[in-house]
Design a protein that fits this description.
- The protein is α+β, with helices and mostly antiparallel strands and 816 residues long.
- It has 4 domains: 236 residues, Jelly Rolls (Sandwich); 93 residues; 196 residues, Neurotransmitter-gated ion-channel ligand-binding domain (Acetylcholine Binding Protein, Chain: A, Distorted Sandwich), CATH 2.70.170; 154 residues, Up-down Bundle (Methane Monooxygenase Hydroxylase, Chain G, domain 1), CATH 1.20.58.
- 15% of the residues lie in helices and 35% in strands.
- The protein is built from 6 helices and 43 strands.
- Strands 3, 5, 10, 11, 12, 14, 15 and 17 form an 8-stranded antiparallel beta sheet that branches.
- The chain is elongated and about 155 Å long.
- The two termini are 92 Å apart.
- It is found in: Membrane.
């Protein structure tokens, strides 16, 4: 008896099933693609509506999903029901992908879940599209999901296909995918040819009483599991064997339960016994007959070929008379024979314990393998000693492979995809896929000093691209710049052969590129002086552009070869370049500077190789905002002379004048304004007026001296020098005005008489009376002094404002 407990809301249902069946996939705990139930072909009929129900429990989850059932008939996933634990969904596919939907559910490991899904056509209010409307109902534990589907044609599950459980198959003969392999239990699995109603689906998932006497499942877990083949590490529990055909002594062909139409079992081993209910074929130690054996008896698998296995032979010379195709044909001396389509035969030689080669036509043609390990098969790469062939060599490496054109053969005969060749990951058991991975082949007679030959009497183009990654240093005082640049040179060399090129250029790194001709560049600054080049890194890559050339069976390895004339070499060099830039500082600090570098080819005439720009020619990928300047524009232009071919890189930088505006222009302007304000002081207060003015003048002079020390010294006046000179002149004028005003003011108080009488002394009484009856201050000021001071108050701001406006307008004309 088997008890299945279901928790349905607040009611606990107990369903007691007699002889129920539980299937455990991957019983040994190992993730494999062989653990499954398989109906074989032809069990499933065509269906226009279907209901699938199952109870499942996940022990582990596959990376992609956990197939409960996978049915193939004419297309992948003709009927597919799987649990995706990572996304918490149920996947449902049907009918040549007319239905491909997911349903959000809650799935937990180690816990029983119950699912029922029905799919059928239903009537629609729109009669024109009635055949296209379908309904899917899915019940999963407490979740009830219903969806309406409108598809391009009426749904139909095509019959006659193959149904497996626990794995996902993509063809009639296909096996599973390790990412789609179920580790867990499935019980009470049924497929009905009708779309059962929602009450039935709910009752099933809640373990209720099912009243379906008139509905018979087409596939289910019956007591004998006669519908399925149990494959791999799969166990079936609670199977009743009493209803088998042991008493009849007859053999049945599963799953149809048809009697076996022939009986060629070995005498004495042809009767069914309680302990021997299965049959196995004998191996090499026994005649190739069938024997009754226990069902748990471990045997080697039988191979069924839909076609005769075909092997290819590589590495022979083009004039060889050995067949370059072999087939498995027969057995001799306990091992298989390889027969060519014409005359070649390869078989096991018991006397010498090696594989020998012979010809049915040429008796002189003989060969044998120099085996490294006793008893190994001749597939893979082996050293053969051959005589009587048309090839000059008698000892050569030969590859015998069964791999197809999209695969690469390891030295031991293992097949891997060509994309796994030289991918920096070991995929062959013997590690041979990462050997001989030089992707550029240099032919004999190749000269590294000679450029590629011209095509149609035209020079070979070398395309240049310069990437400026940073401005490492910009020394205004020393007129020096240091740039970090990446130089990329593209060209094609028709003398070379490339192999195993990838679409990703970074995977096509050329090793030992010093053996290949490379364009040599000379870099000059704007004064035609050589720049100092400090190399940082260098790498050569191949950019795949053309298709691989046809395969040549005379080559041992199955590498894809490409012509050098159709695929581009890329030389990438990283440099720090130090050069001189002739700065023009007339408009400093509102200046813009232009620096240039000329790249030219050396040691080659422009009639053979010409340097062109690639795309835009250059890019600036670094930070454009420097400490004092900002990179504004950059471009590349041709630079061609009578003897060289090159390109010139231009870099324009604009001064970030904000520092000088805030630290020089604004303070000095304020100082001039302070000096000007002394004109509003009391005319009689000459000491304060002149002291403030002189202090302001001295501060401006100090600022001028300090600023001049931090910028280049030039024979000409810079814009900032003009500013300081004007301000100092303005302050000097103000000081002069103060002196003049004071001189005019003092004329009224000079001591003396018109008749030249000399005053010897003045009594204290006269002085006291004179002080007590003096005129108020300011009423007796010299009018000339007053008018001069007022004129300065009016004229000086006009001059200052006019200068500042003109200065600002001029600066604005300099800024783009």
């Amino acid at each position: 008896m088997w008890f299945l407990w279901c928790d349905a809301s607040s009611v606990v249902w107990v369903l007691i099933l007699v002889y129920a069946t539980v299937v455990r996939f991957q019983e040994d705990g190992l993730a494999t693609t062989t653990s499954m139930l398989d109906t074989g072909n032809g069990v499933m009929p065509s269906l226009s509506q279907v209901t699938v129900c199952a109870r499942y429990r996940l022990i582990h989850s596959g990376e992609d999903d956990n197939p409960i059932l996978s049915y193939f008939s004419g297309s992948d996933n003709e009927l597919f029901l799987a649990v995706d634990f990572s996304k918490q969904v149920i996947k449902l596919h049907c009918c040549n992908f007319l239905v491909a939907d997911t349903f959000d559910v809650e799935v937990k490991l180690y816990q029983w879940h119950h699912v029922c899904v029905s799919l059928h056509h239903h009537a629609s209010s729109n009669n024109n599209n009635d055949n296209n409307h379908h309904r899917v109902v899915l019940v999963h534990d407490d979740s009830f999901l219903e969806r309406e589907l409108v598809v391009r044609e009426r749904l139909k599950v095509r019959g006659g296909g193959r149904l497996v459980m626990g794995q996902d198959i993509d063809s009639l003969e296909g096996s599973g995918n390790i990412r789609q392999a179920m580790h867990g239990d499935v019980a009470d699995f049924v497929i009905y040819p009708q779309a059962l109603d929602s009450d039935f689906l709910r009752s099933y998932v809640k373990c209720g009483q099912l009243e379906i006497e008139k509905v018979v499942p087409i596939i289910s877990f019956d007591t004998n599991m006669t519908t399925f083949k149990v494959l791999g590490s799969t166990t079936v529990s609670k199977i009743n064997l009493d209803e088998g055909d042991l008493d009849s002594g007859q053999w049945l062909v599963l799953p149809e339960k048809k009697l076996l139409g022939w009986s060629k079992l070995a005498p004495g081993y042809d009767k069914v016994k309680p302990s021997q209910q299965c049959a196995s074929v004998g191996g090499l130690d026994f005649p190739l007959d069938w024997f009754t054996t226990p069902c748990d008896y471990l045997t080697c698998p039988l191979c069924t070929f839909l076609y005769t296995p075909k092997f290819r032979v590589r590495g022979l010379c083009s004039r060889s008379i050995i067949d370059q195709t072999l087939y498995l044909r027969d057995y001799k001396n306990g091992k298989v024979q390889f027969h060519g389509p014409y005359y070649t035969v390869i078989e096991w030689d018991l006397q010498n314990m090696t594989w020998k080669l012979a010809s049915r036509k040429d008796e002189d043609l003989n060969g044998y393998i120099m085996l490294e390990r006793p008893g190994e098969m001749p597939v893979g790469v082996h050293t053969w000693v051959i005589s009587g062939d048309n090839c000059l060599a008698t000892k050569m490496d030969v590859l015998i492979t069964v791999c197809n054109g999209d695969q690469y053969t390891c030295n031991d005969g293992t097949c891997i995809m060509k994309g796994q060749r030289c991918n920096l990951e070991v995929d062959c058991p013997d590690l041979s896929d990462e050997l001989g991975c030089q992707n550029v082949q240099v032919p004999a007679g190749y000269s590294v000093d000679m450029p590629p030959p011209k095509e149609q009497d035209r020079p070979i183009p070398v395309r240049l691209f310069v990437e400026i990654t940073s401005v490492r240093e910009m020394n205004i005082i020393g007129f020096k710049m240091v740039l970090d640049i990446i130089i990329r040179l593209y060209w094609q060399d028709g003398r070379l052969i490339m192999k195993n090129l990838r679409a990703d250029m970074q995977s096509n790194k050329v090793h030992g590129h010093e053996k290949i001709w490379m364009p040599q560049l000379q870099v000059e600054d704007g004064l035609r002086s050589l720049a100092d080049m400090l190399p940082r890194a260098e790498v050569m890559l191949v950019q795949r552009q053309g298709r691989s050339i046809p395969d040549d069976p005379t080559r041992l390895n199955e590498d894809d070869l490409y012509l050098g004339s159709e695929n581009t070499l890329l030389l990438q060099q990283v440099y720090s370049v130090a050069f001189t830039c002739q700065f023009n500082l007339h408009f400093y600090p509102f200046d813009s500077q232009v620096c240039s570098l000329a790249f030219t080819l050396v040691d080659v005439s422009p009639s053979f190789v010409i340097l062109l720009q690639d795309a835009d020619g250059m890019a600036f990928t670094g930070h454009k905002m420097l400490l004092e300047y900002e990179v504004t524009t950059f471009n590349m232009t041709p630079y061609i002379t009578a003897y060289t071919s090159g390109q010139r890189v231009w870099l324009e930088l604009r001064n970030l004048s904000g520092y000088y505006i805030s630290n020089t222009y604004t303070p000095t302007l304020l100082l001039v304004i302070i000096c000007y304000l002394t004109l509003f002081f009391d005319i009689a207060d000459f000491t304060d007026r002149v002291m403030v003015s002189l202090t302001s003048l001295l501060v401006i002079a100090a600022l001028f001296s300090q600023t001049s020390a931090t910028i280049p010294k030039t024979a000409y006046l810079k814009l900032i020098d003009l500013w300081f000179v004007f301000l100092m002149v303005m302050e000097f004028v103000i000081v002069v005005v103060l002196v003049i005003v004071e001189n005019l003011r003092l004329k009224k108080h000079r001591v003396g008489t018109p008749n030249k009488v000399t005053i010897i002394s003045i009594s204290n009484k006269f002085t006291s009376d004179r002080w007590q009856h003096r005129d108020p201050i300011g009423k007796e000021v010299n009018k000339s002094a007053f008018n001069t001071n007022r004129l300065a108050i009016i004229v000086l701001p006009v001059l200052m404002t006019s200068f500042i406006i003109g200065y600002a307008v001029f600066i604005l004309t300099l800024i783009p």
